[in-house]
Amino acid sequence: MKRRRFGSPDGQVFATRRSRSRRPRALALIAALAGALLVPVTATNASAAGTSYYVDCSASSNGNGTSASPWNSVTAVNSTTFAAGDSVLFKAGTTCTGQLTPGGSGASGSNISMSSYGSGAKPIIDAAGATGAVIHLLNQQYWDIGGLELIDNASSPAYRSGVLAENSSGGVLNHIRVHDMYIHNIAGYGGGWYSTNAGVGVQTDHTTPVSTWNDVVVENNTFDHVDRIAVAVTPNADGQGTGLTTNTVIRNNTMTYDGADDILVVKNDGALIDGNKAGYGGAKSTCPPSGQYCNGASAGIWMSGSSNTVVQNNEVYCHVNGADGTGFDVDWGNHNTTFQYNYSHQNLGGFLLVMPPFTIANEPTSTVPSDGTVVRYNISENDGSNSGCPTSGTQTHGGGVLHFVGGVPNQSGSSSAIPLFYNNTFSVRDGLSTPILYSRAGTSISGALSFQNNAIFNYGSGNYFTTTGTSTYSNNLFYGNHPSREPADAAKVTSDPEFRNAGNANTSSSYTGKNAYQVHPSSPVIRAGAVIASNGGYDAYGNAVSATAAPNIGAYNGTGGNLLSNAGFETGSLSPWTQASGTASSVTASNSRTGAEALTTAASGSGANQSLTGLTPSTTYLLTGWGRVATAGETLAIGVKNFGGTETYTNVASTSYSQAAILFTTGASTTTATVYCWKNAGGAGAGYCDDLAVEPLSSSTNTVTNPGFETGALTPWTQSTGTASSVVASNSRTGTYSLQTGVSASGAIQTVSGLTSGGSYLLAAWAKVATSGEEVAVGVKSFGGTETYLRGSTTSYAQEPIFFTTGVSNTAASVYCYKNSGSAAGYCDDYTVVKLP
């Protein structure tokens, strides 16, 4: 649990109960409840019709609780012990002042419910600054509470809660459900104990034998300005209780400006925390008087001393606490915790806090390293900073995307002795210094971890820690800046992942929130991951993840909307591709770029076609694909025809995989196209194609001016440093003119403006050299990320396509042609910069 305490826990458990009036069945119910204080409660299947009681606090006189004559204060509610099937209903649009302590328990299949009647706003229960809970249940079970608004505001903090359900019975109590509530302005201690400073607190009091809960549901509520925490299902102090509460579900709640944490479960087994949204928490750390529990550190959603917890589909953002301050936290003594499908952004301490074992008095669980931790298919955006948030904090313990307090917790003998981090997407914007892997213990820490298939988009300057144990790093994408301790990864990808809206910088994009981290079909992450057993079966967007076929890198496992089917030939067969005329091609389990399969052509006049239908007339599409040849000097073409325009293709002559990018525009009435991979005639070795993609463009505008130098002049290109380049009426690829560099330290550059921040762009250009073996570079820089370029070394024109993403504060990029060294000129022609949709 969070670290700092002074003295003993406050001990405030609200255990007293005022006397109540009774209906005839009260004595039997009290006897049953007294038994529950000594032995576990056994649920029954009784179903009672029950009685509905009505409360209208705007009524001028107190009635008998019927709809015709409602009670007009909380006093009558607190003086009644309710039975299975009963309902307590408050009139909509009214306000009751005071605290509710209704009596009685329901039964299995026949709960007691507290809700509203009539039309209008939720009825308000305002505790008017009183200490304690607005609604308090002690040793009561089978309650449903919903549809109310709760307030307990005050000028100074005290132990206050919205709903508090306590169990000091010495046994198991069942079913507490709190739903569809608006709980706000609960003036608790930001640094005090959790469940007694909560919007909804479900607490087990320290007893012998132990007390636990079963079937706790907190769902569809709205919390705002609750101190300390919106939802806590915990014992009544650190080190209290050896039993585990079961079947806790906390889902679909919205939380804003919680004073400290948002959701916490302690000593739970099988808790599900699903679909919650929490923002702006962690600003308060006010502690109760000296000698009581005090802890000023907080995180968004976390657990301790718990087993088999699943945290999924949650969004936590702009947490401002300076001590921990992360969106999520796997704290002390946890077993088999899974974080999946979550979206974390702009949390000061980072995405996830990982605690090492440490010592809490009377809590032996805290000394056991948390094991079985799986972190998968999560998206972290600009964590480690509150940049862009309406409020911010100051870090006192530093921050990192993955924030370790000490070493990596490893437990020998565990089924997962090291934490597993796979298929997550971590994005850090330009201007930030957030480390990706950070530890308060330093840059080299004890332990080991597994880090696979993660997409790291690092436009910041942050670094990584190293581990003294043997960590596994494989099939990750490291794009952007590459700091000194970036992990070695033999299967890493370093190209632009082509996110749809990196950093959520484009507010007009149709891809926002976590959807911003879906990728384009030409992305290098597709099928580039390593197969991981027991991978959960689905990604962050509901796409299936195979247990046998290579997944994508990152949290997205879709195709990016690729219009081609079997684009990576991973079915192992050709269909729906068909043989092109000539010698047959085949799909083989060798020579693939990603995954296991690739298209293998014969040596000469061989290939495959795929016919696309349903295209939109007069629309520009981008075809990309990867090809290589077995024999140097031979060529393989990737192209498109039958689209209502002139057949167009790019030849690949490299023996290692090279990418081709082709723009084509359908005719005015054409809705089809034929895409192909074709090994040109006259060769002696095979050709290979893999990872083809077709995507429609929303705009085909080329943002480069004078892209083919056809004005005959350099403007608006400018000279690079060094020897001057020139526009010449020779050596052009198309048209009349081309750019000719000097023999060395020579080239030209153009700043392209009017780009979209956080946008993915394709730079495609053609280059060649006069002398074989020398190099000329096509590149892009000053766009918010790291300068990127490709070098051509052939004496005939070869295409050099580069994908790049602008930074969140960048709307321009500089594209260039540059000859670094040599004895003869280089040539460039036909520049295109086009935005991906």
Structural topology:
Layout: H1 26-36, E1 52-55, H2 74-78, E2 87-91, E3 95-97, E4 112-117, E5 124-126, E6 132-138, E7 143-146, E8 149-152, E9 160-167, E10 172-179, E11 182-187, E12 198-204, E13 212-219, E14 222-227, E15 229-235, E16 245-251, E17 254-256, E18 263-266, E19 268-269, E20 272-274, E21 277-279, E22 301-304, E23 310-312, E24 315-317, E25 326-330, E26 338-340, E27 343-345, E28 350-354, E29 374-376, E30 379-381, E31 402-404, E32 420-422, E33 425-428, E34 437-439, E35 444-445, E36 450-452, E37 455-458, E38 466-467, E39 472-474, E40 477-480, E41 578-579, E42 586-588, E43 598-600, E44 606-612, E45 620-629, E46 636-641, E47 648-652, E48 658-665, E49 673-679, E50 687-696, E51 718-719, E52 726-728, E53 738-740, E54 746-752, E55 760-769, E56 776-781, E57 788-792, E58 798-805, E59 813-819, E60 826-835
Parallel strand pairs: 1-2, 2-4, 3-5, 4-7, 5-8, 6-9, 7-10, 8-11, 9-12, 10-13, 11-14, 12-15, 13-16, 14-17, 15-18, 16-19, 16-20, 17-21, 18-22, 20-23, 21-24, 22-25, 23-26, 24-27, 25-28, 26-29, 27-30, 28-31, 29-32, 30-33, 31-34, 32-36, 33-37, 35-38, 36-39, 37-40
Antiparallel strand pairs: 41-44, 42-43, 43-50, 44-49, 45-48, 45-50, 46-47, 46-49, 51-54, 52-53, 53-60, 54-59, 55-58, 55-60, 56-57, 56-59
